[in-house]
Amino acid sequence: MLDRTLAPPFVRSTSFELIQPIQKSSAKGADIFFVLGGMQNVSKTELIFPAGRWQEKVWGASYFSSQMLSKGTRDKTSYEIAQLFDHYGSHLEINPGLDFVSVAVYALNKNLEASIVLLLELLQSSVFPEKELTQLKSIYLQNLRVNREKTSFQSSVRLRRSLYGDSQPYGKELEEQEVSSLSKDQLIDHFDQFYKTATIIVSGNASDAHQKVITDAFGCFANNPLRKESEIASMPQTKERQVVSKEGSVQSSIRLGKRSIGRTHTDYAGVVFLNHILGGYFGSRLMKNIREEKGLSYGISSSLTTMIRANHLAIGADVNLENVGLTFQEIRNELNRLRTESINPAELEIARNHFIGSLQLEITTSFAHADKIKNLLLFNLPNNFYQQMILLIDKFGPDDLIRIANEYFHEDSFLEIAVG
Fold this sequence. Notes:
- Helices cover 43% and strands 18% of the residues.
- It is of the alpha+beta class.
- Strands 1, 2, 3, 4, 5, 6 and 7 form a seven-stranded mixed β-sheet that branches.
- Helix 9 packs across helix 14 (385-395).
């Protein structure tokens, strides 16, 4: 009989095997990748268009054109579209990004064909009704005004603007006037230009018949080459800390950030792992120092954001106004420690096991496998990218991490911003 008073033995694995996708093409050449797996009769069909903010000729065209797709076609109102997706047990998900726009539908396999037909109608027959556009802009502007009262929003906007400039899509935040002046014709122009090529990823338990339905349905889309883009130039960075007061605020949102490297760089695995040690999980150094030992914040984290044309490291926390200077100093101390002190074996092993285990847990479903495969496609990465990253992290020693910390985590290279 199993003795439940004893913990199960720890089994350590460095394996990371992704489902091998089946690749097909639409009639006009769009790549379709089928990531097949799972026992449930459900599937996800995702179309990725090169239609993100980076492609805009008019600020806001990407976001609003994508959000208007489900607001009405030549034959259906937004209400009828929503009712049909509900009737089919399907879920439409539209994610406008800085580089790409993703349009996906989750469907029961018994209603897959009907769901795909409806999705295709949105992508071919949307009419961008003026009434719906007016309402969507009103909601956006209301949310924008609410967000601008939040110190966390203001500090994040200031960080991106400082890193990329407000004339670049990565650093730009829409202004009220830009939203108000957007026209239906401008959205249609953006849609007509950037929604003709796509990369399509299908995941779940899709039969041969379902695969044929999808391949035939999306025959109108051409190939999206997903070419590697050159990185944009860095902005000149001031060393002076930016502190912005907000009347009535008792807390301040602090951000530290700097431009960093992307997924194709040889040091990427090291930067990702060091970020994990610094502030990437609950047992990280920043959490232990800022939250547990000094009680300066309920939470603090660091992250590495990777995009097609640029990448950046960011550290963020909310603290009481009187603790802003102390928190900045303690973060600088932790960055300095990464560069000057060897990580002890126990801490290194805990962080290593947590990172590898967390990454492995991210591929428990075929949908999750598809998300990883999407990253491989969008960033032009080799098929064994994640496996090789795990193997590299498994071999890192203290000296390797000190070298990487000195190159990418120097405390003097981070911008410092506080709003509150």
